[in-house]
Design goal:
The protein is α/β, with parallel strands linked by helices. The chain is built from 16 helices and 26 strands. It has three domains: 139 residues, 3-Layer(aba) Sandwich (Rossmann fold); 220 residues, Rossmann fold (3-Layer(aba) Sandwich); 104 residues, GMP Synthetase, Chain A, domain 3, CATH 3.30.300.
Length: 560
């Protein structure tokens, strides 16, 4: 058993503090090289599905070789590469190799298909796509609609249902492992060394006020997800991060895997969250830290209690949002709940930590070092403690926040009104400076950890030839979550029914975006300016939810 003295020594020697990294040193190649030199034989990554392990030294050498392979076929500094990949060592290796080249990764939600997939890859100007073979058919469907795409690299993992990509036009198709096998086994030295202020990642938001926006992160901004979390929460080199959230989200890629990297810690990677496998993998891996999003905590909490519940090594769990039963969750599973608030639009900004008073549990904590947070009214004037307003943010240092939205200058400017980033989230502070999330101003649905743009769902529904109008909004569930609801006005004589609409949605959007509840109406309630009064639709639907068509009650199973 680790002794208190050993823990204290580990924290003192390995804790990330304000002066651990100079801003100009924050690039992925430099951070990885730092630990490849210091602790080359320490295991950084373990994949639960296969048992594969990679030390810091092996990962550095492998990503050098992947960088040689990608650069050799035309992935150059500043070029954009889409990553349509599930959780795997290959996913992380490609991301790090692209960072070494000085190029830009565009992680894509693996549930995207049809028009949504075309939008992500087209709007981001991807010249290259790296795709898991199991997702190849989805990419094939949109290849002809991506005029800037030059090459596709297919990653085969041995899973069932793997496919391939057939070349379209001048698009070249290559096999990932064959490319890497032919690449030099030598350090990768790019023509121009990546800098901390170089763009490294375009992360798509949920598109809460219109089409999804690509948030641009510099190398430094991406890595400060990890450095600021490690500093605030007391992460240390002996920690083992269990990652089961998808790597195409900043939470898993930057706030967990990135945090482990900057600490010199370790990562155990699962392909996806599974209630039945979760505690077994936690115990087997001896994981000490993990992150929850959405209803994950609810799913685990609702399982029958067991005498073995506290038999695990977890010491910290980030719970976003923090459920009302968090204190009981801590006792039952023998761990400490924390919370971290941030947005892919801007960065991570607050932390509720293991050292904060448990009476404040439920708070999103206090601002991290170097971050300013204000609660303001509609005129951007600061409100006193106890009053609810919009949360606005500002970093003290350059390059810690995002660089704006890709090819959306107006949206970028609007989000930074009066020199503060406007979150669109409403919150309040108490007399002790603790912040509390209240709700969202944005037209956004939060379902099982996924942010869903009502606008995008509406736009895709509207492409059905039988739809005259559509309104999409969230309805609350008993599990402290939200489900997608759609009210639709069908064109006269179309004969459109709910099943046909669901089939259309599944062909053109991620499975988690497909409405669960559907109601047909003859007309929408509107304001004098002809805006749909969604609040009325939501009130009426929630009051008579049993009368709406329910996808789950109808037994419709969505393909993932």
């Amino acid at each position: 058993m680790t002794t208190p003295a050993a823990i204290a020594a580990d924290m003192e020697l390995n804790a990330v503090t304000a002066d651990t990294y100079a801003l100009a040193e924050l690039t992925f190649p430099k951070v990885l090289a730092r630990f490849a030199e210091r602790t080359p034989d320490k295991v950084f990554l373990t994949e639960t599905a296969t048992g594969r392990r990679f030390t810091y030294g092996e990962l550095d050498a492998w990503t050098d070789r992947v960088a040689h392979a990608l650069h050799g076929i035309g992935v150059a500094r500043g070029g954009h590469t889409g990553l349509l990949m599930g959780n795997s060592p290959e996913h992380l290796a490609v991301f790090l190799a692209i960072a070494k080249i000085g190029a830009v990764s565009v992680p894509v939600n693996t549930a995207a298909r049809g028009e949504l997939l075309r939008y992500y890859l087209g709007q981001s100007d991807c010249e290259t796509v790296v795709v898991d073979a199991s997702l190849a058919s989805r990419l094939q469907d949109v290849l002809a609609e991506l005029p800037l795409l030059k090459r596709v690299i297919v990653v085969r993992t041995g899973d069932d249902g793997e496919g391939t990509v057939d070349p379209v036009g001048t698009i070249a198709v290559a096999d990932f492992h064959a490319l890497v096998e032919r690449a030099p086994e030598a350090p990768f030295v790019p023509p121009v060394a990546p800098r901390f202020c170089d763009l490294v990642l375009i992360a798509y938001t949920s598109g809460t006020t219109g089409p999804s926006k690509g948030s641009m992160l510099s190398q430094a901004a991406a890595l400060t997800y990890g450095t600021s979390a490690a500093e605030a929460q007391g992460y240390r080199a002996s920690d083992i991060f269990y990652v089961c959230l998808p790597l195409f989200h900043n939470n898993a890629l930057l706030a967990a895997t990135g945090a482990a990297l900057v600490c010199g810690a370790s990562v155990v990677m699962s392909r996806r969250f599974s209630v039945s496998k979760f505690w077994g993998e936690i115990r087997e891996s001896k994981a000490t830290i993990t992150n929850f999003l959405g209803a994950m905590s609810s799913f685990l909490w609702s399982q029958p209690p067991s005498p073995a519940d506290a038999d695990n090594c977890l010491r910290l769990v980030s719970m976003a949002p923090t459920p009302k039963y968090a204190a009981e969750f801590e006792k039952r599973f023998g761990l400490c709940a924390m919370n971290n608030y941030g947005l892919s639009d801007y960065g991570m900004v607050t932390s509720f930590t293991q050292w904060d008073a448990r009476s404040k549990l439920g708070s999103i904590g206090r601002p991290r070092r170097g971050v300013q947070v204000r609660i303001v009214d509609d005129d951007d004037l600061e409100l006193p403690p106890g009053e609810v307003g919009e949360m606005v943010l500002r970093f003290d240092e350059p390059w810690r926040g995002t660089m704006g939205y890709y090819k959306m200058p107006e949206a970028t400017l609007n989000s930074r009104r009066n020199l503060w980033f406007h979150t669109g989230d409403r919150g309040m502070s108490d007399a002790d400076g603790y912040l509390y999330f209240v709700d969202r101003k944005k037209d956004c649905i939060r379902r099982r950890g996924e942010n869903i743009s009502a606008f995008e769902v509406e736009q895709i529904i509207a492409t059905h030839p039988g739809v005259a109008d559509a309104a999409v909004f969230p309805v609350a569930t008993a599990a402290n979550d939200e489900e997608v609801a759609a009210v639709v006005v069908a064109k006269p004589g179309s004969g459109l029914d709910a099943l046909q609409l669901v089939e259309h949605c599944q062909r053109n959007m991620a499975y988690f975006m497909v409405p669960r509840y559907i109601q047909f109406r003859d007309a929408m309630p509107t304001t004098m300016s002809q805006k749909v009064e969604k609040f009325k639709l939501r009130q009426e639907l929630e009051a008579g939810l049993s009368q709406a068509w329910d996808r789950e009650a109808a037994g419709v199973v969505l393909a993932r």
